Amino acid sequence: MIEATDGQSRPLLHPAPYADVPTSPFRPGPAGTHITIRGLCKYFAGWPLYENFDLDIPKNGIVSIFGPNGCGKSTLINMIAGLVPIDRGEILFDGKPLRDTRVGYVFQNYREALFPWMRTIDNIAYPLILEGKGKAEVDRRMAELVASFDVRFDLKRYPYELSGGQQQTASIMRALAPGPEVLFLDEPFSALDFEMTLFIREKLQEVFMRTGTTMMLVSHDLEEAVYLADHILLLTKRPTRVAEMLSYDEARPRTVDTLSQPQFIATKKESLRIFQQEMRR
User: Which PROSITE patterns does this UniProt record tie to the protein (predicted)?
Assistant: First the structure.
């Protein structure tokens, strides 16, 4: 049970993540949809954060999530990734449940995301070990990731011996190690200095261009959200709805010159207009 502010007890309908109990016949998304969300409900203290929320996330794109504080941006990706239980609804990946889908997650707090008792290289390899991969396969994948991220720090050191940017780099490498179908990133740049932010942005772009992995990125920085995205998901105040899903198809790789391109400026302006309109409601 959950206790509401009015003193009434209400049942927590499905305390386990992904209680696949749709409230109505499931409606698939349009062609090209990767993640389909139908009838999603999430309550805190009896008050709705998400209620009968529907969303279609396109495949092989980067979706940036932007919205007012408290609208549940991080909660949304945490529910999709199975880290936070949903109260009602259904979420499918290419028509499959989460248990049949390989996902990766990059946490905002990289200092707590890595196991301090493991060397950094062992942290990165951990998902592969869990899958039962042999040493040769693990070593091959580690070599690929090191080359891809141009790693120049000692991966045999422990996480606490690394800088924040190096720890976040290791966190992203770990999330990518098993080749996820979907990569979730919860404000991955918020605790990084500007130099490291630029480096990680470019590496994520390179990974996306090479693999086409569907990514969902939570951001509090509108310029960052637009710069990286193929789609900008703009959310409303709670109970949270989709205000708009804007498309942004500027060619990659995007560079500093992208910031002055007419399409970037127009997309950022429209995103800001929608955000401000929602804040005035």
Answer: ABC_TRANSPORTER_2
**Cα distances (angstroms) measured from residue 106 to each of 26, 43, 103, 183:** 30, 25, 10, 8
Strands (DSSP E) found in the chain = 2-3, 9-10, 33-44, 47-58, 62-66, 88-93, 103-106, 182-186, 214-218, 231-235, 242-247
Measure CA of the first residue to CA of the last residue in the chain; give whole Å: 32
**Which helix (DSSP H) or strand (DSSP E) does residue 135 occupy?**
helix 135-148
Q: What is the C-alpha separation between 71 and 73, in angstroms, rounded?
A: 6
**Contact in structure between 237 and 278 (CB atoms under 8 Å):** yes
Tokens of 193: 């200095």
Report the distance separating Cα 178 and Cα 269, nearest Å: 37
pLDDT 10s digits, 202-254: 999 999 999 999 999 999 999 999 999 999 999 999 999 999 999 999 999 99
CB 170 within 8 A of CB 159: yes
Closest CA to 115 of 158, 54, 175: 158
Tell me if the pTM is above 0.85.
Answer: yes
Q: How many DSSP H helices and E strands does the chain contain?
A: 8, 11
> How many whole angstroms separate alpha carbon 180 and alpha carbon 214?
9
